[in-house]
Protein backbone atom coordinates (compact mmCIF):
# COMPACT_ATOMS: atom_id res chain seq x y z
CA UNK A 1 0.00 0.00 0.00
CA UNK A 2 1.41 3.42 -0.98
CA UNK A 3 0.53 6.38 1.23
CA UNK A 4 1.36 9.99 0.49
CA UNK A 5 2.25 10.45 4.15
CA UNK A 6 2.72 8.11 7.08
CA UNK A 7 2.38 9.99 10.36
CA UNK A 8 3.98 8.30 13.36
CA UNK A 9 2.23 9.26 16.61
CA UNK A 10 -1.41 10.17 17.24
CA UNK A 11 -1.15 12.86 19.92
CA UNK A 12 -2.17 16.49 19.30
CA UNK A 13 0.60 16.94 16.68
CA UNK A 14 -0.20 13.80 14.68
CA UNK A 15 -3.98 14.27 14.86
CA UNK A 16 -3.74 17.87 13.64
CA UNK A 17 -1.40 16.92 10.81
CA UNK A 18 -3.70 14.08 9.74
CA UNK A 19 -6.68 16.45 9.66
CA UNK A 20 -4.92 19.03 7.49
CA UNK A 21 -3.48 16.42 5.12
CA UNK A 22 -6.81 14.60 4.97
CA UNK A 23 -8.63 17.77 4.03
CA UNK A 24 -5.97 18.34 1.36
CA UNK A 25 -6.99 14.97 -0.16
CA UNK A 26 -3.71 13.25 0.58
CA UNK A 27 -3.68 9.54 1.35
CA UNK A 28 -2.60 9.33 4.99
CA UNK A 29 -1.83 6.62 7.51
CA UNK A 30 -1.88 7.85 11.12
CA UNK A 31 -0.21 5.23 13.29
CA UNK A 32 -0.30 5.43 17.05
CA UNK A 33 0.85 2.95 19.61
CA UNK A 34 2.26 3.15 23.08
CA UNK A 35 1.80 5.47 26.01
CA UNK A 36 0.99 9.12 25.36
CA UNK A 37 3.01 11.70 27.24
CA UNK A 38 0.20 13.05 29.39
CA UNK A 39 -1.21 9.57 30.12
CA UNK A 40 -0.99 10.18 33.86
CA UNK A 41 -2.94 13.46 33.75
CA UNK A 42 -6.67 13.45 34.45
CA UNK A 43 -7.46 16.58 32.47
CA UNK A 44 -5.86 18.54 29.68
CA UNK A 45 -5.97 22.26 30.36
CA UNK A 46 -5.15 25.44 28.45
CA UNK A 47 -6.33 24.27 25.00
CA UNK A 48 -8.97 26.69 23.81
CA UNK A 49 -12.42 24.98 23.49
CA UNK A 50 -10.99 21.83 25.16
CA UNK A 51 -9.96 23.20 28.56
CA UNK A 52 -10.47 20.39 31.10
CA UNK A 53 -11.04 17.60 28.57
CA UNK A 54 -9.51 14.24 29.64
CA UNK A 55 -6.56 13.48 27.33
CA UNK A 56 -8.11 10.18 26.17
CA UNK A 57 -11.33 11.98 25.23
CA UNK A 58 -9.36 14.60 23.27
CA UNK A 59 -7.83 11.81 21.18
CA UNK A 60 -11.17 10.05 20.76
CA UNK A 61 -12.74 13.23 19.36
CA UNK A 62 -9.73 13.73 17.11
CA UNK A 63 -10.01 10.24 15.66
CA UNK A 64 -13.79 10.53 15.32
CA UNK A 65 -13.41 13.71 13.27
CA UNK A 66 -10.74 12.07 11.11
CA UNK A 67 -13.14 9.22 10.36
CA UNK A 68 -15.07 11.64 8.09
CA UNK A 69 -12.16 11.55 5.66
CA UNK A 70 -11.99 8.25 3.76
CA UNK A 71 -8.45 9.03 2.59
CA UNK A 72 -7.18 9.01 6.22
CA UNK A 73 -6.58 5.70 7.98
CA UNK A 74 -6.13 5.93 11.73
CA UNK A 75 -4.66 2.76 13.16
CA UNK A 76 -3.45 1.65 16.58
CA UNK A 77 -0.28 0.17 15.26
CA UNK A 78 3.38 0.66 16.05
CA UNK A 79 5.93 1.77 13.49
CA UNK A 80 8.93 -0.50 14.05
CA UNK A 81 11.34 0.92 11.50
CA UNK A 82 11.63 3.26 8.54
CA UNK A 83 13.97 2.79 5.60
CA UNK A 84 14.30 4.07 2.04
CA UNK A 85 14.48 7.70 1.00
CA UNK A 86 12.45 10.75 0.05
CA UNK A 87 9.57 9.71 -2.24
CA UNK A 88 10.03 6.01 -1.50
CA UNK A 89 10.04 5.19 2.19
CA UNK A 90 9.36 1.69 3.47
CA UNK A 91 7.59 1.74 6.81
CA UNK A 92 7.53 -1.44 8.86
CA UNK A 93 4.45 -1.66 11.06
CA UNK A 94 4.05 -4.37 13.67
CA UNK A 95 2.14 -6.57 11.21
CA UNK A 96 2.97 -5.38 7.69
CA UNK A 97 5.11 -3.14 5.51
CA UNK A 98 3.72 -0.06 3.73
CA UNK A 99 5.24 2.54 1.41
CA UNK A 100 5.15 6.30 1.84
CA UNK A 101 6.21 9.33 -0.13
CA UNK A 102 6.84 11.31 3.07
CA UNK A 103 7.10 10.53 6.79
CA UNK A 104 6.04 12.84 9.59
CA UNK A 105 7.35 12.06 13.08
CA UNK A 106 4.99 13.13 15.89
CA UNK A 107 6.27 10.66 18.47
CA UNK A 108 6.47 13.04 21.46
CA UNK A 109 9.11 12.59 24.15
CA UNK A 110 9.59 10.05 26.93
CA UNK A 111 9.90 11.50 30.44
CA UNK A 112 12.46 9.58 32.50
CA UNK A 113 11.19 9.13 36.03
CA UNK A 114 13.60 10.35 38.72
CA UNK A 115 14.90 7.76 41.20
CA UNK A 116 13.19 9.47 44.14
CA UNK A 117 10.86 7.33 46.21
CA UNK A 118 7.28 8.33 45.30
CA UNK A 119 8.16 10.30 42.15
CA UNK A 120 6.78 7.81 39.62
CA UNK A 121 3.57 7.18 41.59
CA UNK A 122 2.79 10.90 41.92
CA UNK A 123 3.77 11.92 38.36
CA UNK A 124 0.88 13.67 36.61
CA UNK A 125 -1.11 14.12 39.83
CA UNK A 126 0.96 15.88 42.50
CA UNK A 127 4.23 15.95 40.60
CA UNK A 128 3.66 18.04 37.50
CA UNK A 129 5.71 19.95 34.98
CA UNK A 130 3.78 22.90 33.64
CA UNK A 131 2.05 25.66 35.62
CA UNK A 132 0.01 26.71 32.58
CA UNK A 133 -1.38 23.17 32.42
CA UNK A 134 -2.15 22.68 36.12
CA UNK A 135 -1.25 25.84 38.07
CA UNK A 136 -4.79 27.20 38.27
CA UNK A 137 -6.05 24.03 39.98
CA UNK A 138 -3.39 24.32 42.72
CA UNK A 139 -3.25 28.08 43.11
CA UNK A 140 -2.38 29.31 46.62
CA UNK A 141 -1.42 25.78 47.70
CA UNK A 142 2.05 24.85 49.00
CA UNK A 143 4.25 24.64 45.90
CA UNK A 144 7.61 22.89 45.65
CA UNK A 145 9.96 23.23 42.70
CA UNK A 146 12.53 20.51 42.15
CA UNK A 147 15.46 22.21 40.43
CA UNK A 148 17.97 19.86 38.85
CA UNK A 149 21.49 20.85 37.81
CA UNK A 150 20.58 20.65 34.10
CA UNK A 151 17.86 23.26 34.57
CA UNK A 152 19.71 25.48 37.03
CA UNK A 153 19.79 28.42 34.60
CA UNK A 154 15.97 28.45 34.43
CA UNK A 155 15.54 28.26 38.20
CA UNK A 156 15.06 31.96 38.93
CA UNK A 157 12.57 32.76 36.13
CA UNK A 158 10.58 29.59 36.83
CA UNK A 159 10.46 30.20 40.60
CA UNK A 160 9.56 33.89 40.29
CA UNK A 161 6.85 33.04 37.78
CA UNK A 162 5.46 30.45 40.23
CA UNK A 163 4.83 33.27 42.72
CA UNK A 164 2.07 34.44 40.38
CA UNK A 165 0.14 31.31 41.32
CA UNK A 166 1.11 30.87 44.96
CA UNK A 167 2.68 32.82 47.79
CA UNK A 168 4.00 29.58 49.31
CA UNK A 169 6.90 28.41 47.15
CA UNK A 170 9.92 26.28 48.13
CA UNK A 171 12.77 25.42 45.80
CA UNK A 172 14.51 22.06 46.34
CA UNK A 173 17.89 21.54 44.68
CA UNK A 174 18.30 17.94 45.89
CA UNK A 175 21.93 18.82 46.56
CA UNK A 176 22.54 18.66 42.81
CA UNK A 177 24.36 21.99 42.35
CA UNK A 178 25.73 24.98 44.28
CA UNK A 179 23.29 27.87 44.36
CA UNK A 180 25.05 31.14 43.49
CA UNK A 181 24.70 34.04 45.99
CA UNK A 182 22.80 36.23 43.48
CA UNK A 183 20.29 33.41 42.91
CA UNK A 184 19.79 33.01 46.66
CA UNK A 185 19.28 36.78 46.96
CA UNK A 186 16.65 36.86 44.20
CA UNK A 187 14.71 33.94 45.69
CA UNK A 188 14.83 35.53 49.12
CA UNK A 189 13.67 38.90 47.75
CA UNK A 190 10.64 37.15 46.24
CA UNK A 191 9.86 35.32 49.49
CA UNK A 192 10.79 31.91 48.07
CA UNK A 193 12.33 29.35 50.45
CA UNK A 194 15.36 27.32 49.40
CA UNK A 195 16.21 23.77 50.53
CA UNK A 196 19.55 22.49 49.26
CA UNK A 197 19.71 19.12 51.06
CA UNK A 198 19.18 15.91 49.04
CA UNK A 199 15.57 14.78 48.78
CA UNK A 200 15.07 11.32 50.27
CA UNK A 201 11.41 10.71 49.37
CA UNK A 202 8.03 12.19 48.57
CA UNK A 203 5.52 11.61 51.33
CA UNK A 204 1.98 10.99 50.09
CA UNK A 205 -1.42 10.05 51.41
CA UNK A 206 -4.16 8.68 49.11
CA UNK A 207 -1.85 9.33 46.14
CA UNK A 208 -1.60 13.04 47.03
CA UNK A 209 1.69 14.69 47.99
CA UNK A 210 1.91 15.89 51.58
CA UNK A 211 5.60 16.65 52.07
CA UNK A 212 9.06 16.48 50.59
CA UNK A 213 11.34 14.62 52.96
CA UNK A 214 14.99 15.64 53.04
CA UNK A 215 18.05 13.54 53.88
CA UNK A 216 18.15 15.27 57.28
CA UNK A 217 14.79 13.68 58.05
CA UNK A 218 12.99 17.04 57.93
CA UNK A 219 9.67 16.94 56.07
CA UNK A 220 8.77 20.14 54.19
CA UNK A 221 4.97 20.34 53.69
CA UNK A 222 4.08 20.52 49.99
CA UNK A 223 0.85 19.95 48.04
CA UNK A 224 2.42 19.93 44.61
CA UNK A 225 5.92 19.53 43.21
CA UNK A 226 6.97 20.94 39.84
CA UNK A 227 9.72 18.97 38.14
CA UNK A 228 11.26 18.63 34.70
CA UNK A 229 12.78 15.16 34.55
CA UNK A 230 15.16 14.38 31.70
CA UNK A 231 13.50 13.44 28.42
CA UNK A 232 14.55 11.10 25.64
CA UNK A 233 13.48 10.40 22.08
CA UNK A 234 11.70 7.12 21.32
CA UNK A 235 13.87 4.38 19.83
CA UNK A 236 12.46 4.82 16.31
CA UNK A 237 13.68 8.42 16.14
CA UNK A 238 17.10 7.53 17.49
CA UNK A 239 17.43 4.69 14.97
CA UNK A 240 16.50 6.98 12.07
CA UNK A 241 19.56 9.08 12.78
CA UNK A 242 17.89 12.48 12.37
CA UNK A 243 20.04 15.30 13.71
CA UNK A 244 19.30 16.35 17.28
CA UNK A 245 20.08 19.69 18.94
CA UNK A 246 22.27 20.03 22.05
CA UNK A 247 19.26 19.33 24.29
CA UNK A 248 18.29 16.17 22.41
CA UNK A 249 15.35 17.56 20.41
CA UNK A 250 14.97 16.86 16.69
CA UNK A 251 16.34 19.72 14.59
CA UNK A 252 13.88 20.91 11.93
CA UNK A 253 13.97 23.60 9.30
CA UNK A 254 11.82 26.29 10.99
CA UNK A 255 9.80 26.95 7.83
CA UNK A 256 9.50 23.49 6.26
CA UNK A 257 9.72 21.42 9.47
CA UNK A 258 11.89 18.94 7.57
CA UNK A 259 14.54 17.08 9.57
CA UNK A 260 18.13 16.45 8.48
CA UNK A 261 16.83 13.33 6.65
CA UNK A 262 15.21 14.52 3.39
CA UNK A 263 11.51 13.66 3.23
CA UNK A 264 11.24 13.06 6.99
CA UNK A 265 9.45 15.83 8.90
CA UNK A 266 8.84 16.32 12.62
CA UNK A 267 6.30 18.19 14.75
CA UNK A 268 5.38 18.41 18.41
CA UNK A 269 7.20 17.74 21.66
CA UNK A 270 10.06 15.84 20.04
CA UNK A 271 11.31 19.06 18.45
CA UNK A 272 11.16 21.49 21.37
CA UNK A 273 11.22 22.08 25.11
CA UNK A 274 8.23 24.45 24.58
CA UNK A 275 5.78 21.65 25.18
CA UNK A 276 2.01 21.97 25.30
CA UNK A 277 -0.81 20.29 23.45
CA UNK A 278 -1.77 23.42 21.53
CA UNK A 279 1.84 24.07 20.48
CA UNK A 280 2.07 20.48 19.24
CA UNK A 281 -1.23 20.79 17.35
CA UNK A 282 0.00 24.01 15.73
CA UNK A 283 3.26 22.37 14.68
CA UNK A 284 1.39 19.39 13.24
CA UNK A 285 -0.79 21.63 11.07
CA UNK A 286 2.27 23.60 9.99
CA UNK A 287 4.17 20.46 8.97
CA UNK A 288 1.14 19.11 7.14
CA UNK A 289 0.80 22.30 5.08
CA UNK A 290 4.48 22.21 4.12
CA UNK A 291 4.36 18.52 3.18
CA UNK A 292 1.18 19.03 1.17
CA UNK A 293 2.65 21.98 -0.72
CA UNK A 294 5.72 20.02 -1.67
CA UNK A 295 3.83 16.85 -2.60
CA UNK A 296 1.17 18.68 -4.61
CA UNK A 297 3.79 20.54 -6.64
CA UNK A 298 5.68 17.34 -7.29
CA UNK A 299 2.62 15.32 -8.26
CA UNK A 300 1.08 18.11 -10.35
CA UNK A 301 4.27 18.53 -12.38
CA UNK A 302 4.43 14.77 -12.89
CA UNK A 303 0.82 14.79 -14.13
CA UNK A 304 -0.11 12.50 -11.23
CA UNK A 305 -2.90 14.60 -9.70
C1 LIG B 1 1.70 14.79 33.12
C2 LIG B 1 1.53 15.72 31.97
C3 LIG B 1 0.43 16.57 31.91
C4 LIG B 1 0.27 17.45 30.85
N1 LIG B 1 -0.80 18.29 30.84
C5 LIG B 1 -0.96 19.15 29.82
C6 LIG B 1 -2.08 20.05 29.79
O1 LIG B 1 -2.91 20.08 30.71
N2 LIG B 1 -2.16 20.92 28.75
C7 LIG B 1 -1.24 20.92 27.73
O2 LIG B 1 -1.38 21.72 26.80
N3 LIG B 1 -0.20 20.09 27.73
C8 LIG B 1 -0.03 19.20 28.74
N4 LIG B 1 1.04 18.36 28.75
C9 LIG B 1 1.95 18.37 27.60
C10 LIG B 1 1.29 17.64 26.43
O3 LIG B 1 0.82 16.38 26.85
C11 LIG B 1 2.27 17.48 25.28
O4 LIG B 1 2.85 18.73 24.96
C12 LIG B 1 1.54 16.93 24.04
O5 LIG B 1 0.90 15.70 24.33
C13 LIG B 1 2.54 16.72 22.91
O6 LIG B 1 1.88 16.22 21.82
P1 LIG B 1 2.66 15.35 20.74
O7 LIG B 1 1.63 15.03 19.70
O8 LIG B 1 3.91 16.02 20.34
O9 LIG B 1 3.12 14.02 21.51
P2 LIG B 1 2.30 12.95 22.39
O10 LIG B 1 1.02 13.50 22.87
O11 LIG B 1 3.25 12.44 23.39
O12 LIG B 1 1.96 11.81 21.35
C14 LIG B 1 2.97 11.01 20.78
C15 LIG B 1 2.38 9.66 20.42
O13 LIG B 1 3.27 8.94 19.56
C16 LIG B 1 3.19 7.57 19.91
N5 LIG B 1 4.36 6.86 19.39
C17 LIG B 1 5.65 6.97 19.79
N6 LIG B 1 6.43 6.13 19.09
C18 LIG B 1 5.60 5.48 18.21
C19 LIG B 1 5.82 4.46 17.20
N7 LIG B 1 7.02 3.97 16.97
N8 LIG B 1 4.75 4.03 16.49
C20 LIG B 1 3.51 4.52 16.72
N9 LIG B 1 3.25 5.48 17.67
C21 LIG B 1 4.29 5.94 18.41
C22 LIG B 1 3.15 7.64 21.43
O14 LIG B 1 2.76 6.43 22.00
C23 LIG B 1 2.15 8.76 21.63
O15 LIG B 1 0.83 8.25 21.62
C24 LIG B 1 1.23 17.47 29.80
C25 LIG B 1 2.33 16.62 29.84
C26 LIG B 1 2.50 15.76 30.92
C27 LIG B 1 3.71 14.87 30.95
TrEMBL record:
<dbReference type="InterPro" id="IPR050097">
    <property type="entry name" value="Ferredoxin-NADP_redctase_2"/>
</dbReference>
<protein>
    <submittedName>
        <fullName>Thioredoxin reductase</fullName>
    </submittedName>
</protein>
<keyword id="KW-0560">Oxidoreductase</keyword>
<dbReference type="InterPro" id="IPR036188">
    <property type="entry name" value="FAD/NAD-bd_sf"/>
</dbReference>
<dbReference type="InterPro" id="IPR023753">
    <property type="entry name" value="FAD/NAD-binding_dom"/>
</dbReference>
<feature type="domain" description="FAD/NAD(P)-binding">
    <location>
        <begin position="3"/>
        <end position="284"/>
    </location>
</feature>
<dbReference type="Pfam" id="PF07992">
    <property type="entry name" value="Pyr_redox_2"/>
</dbReference>
<keyword id="KW-0285">Flavoprotein</keyword>
<dbReference type="GO" id="GO:0016491">
    <property type="term" value="F:oxidoreductase activity"/>
</dbReference>
Amino acid sequence: MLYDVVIVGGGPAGLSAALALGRARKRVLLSDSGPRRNAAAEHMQNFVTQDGTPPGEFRRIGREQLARYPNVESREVRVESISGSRGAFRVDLTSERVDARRVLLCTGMVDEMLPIDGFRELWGHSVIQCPYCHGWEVQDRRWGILALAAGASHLVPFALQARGWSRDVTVFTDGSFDVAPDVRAQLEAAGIRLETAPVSRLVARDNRLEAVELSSGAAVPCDVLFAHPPQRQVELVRALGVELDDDGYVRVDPMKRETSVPGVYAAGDLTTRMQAAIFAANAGTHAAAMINLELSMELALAGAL
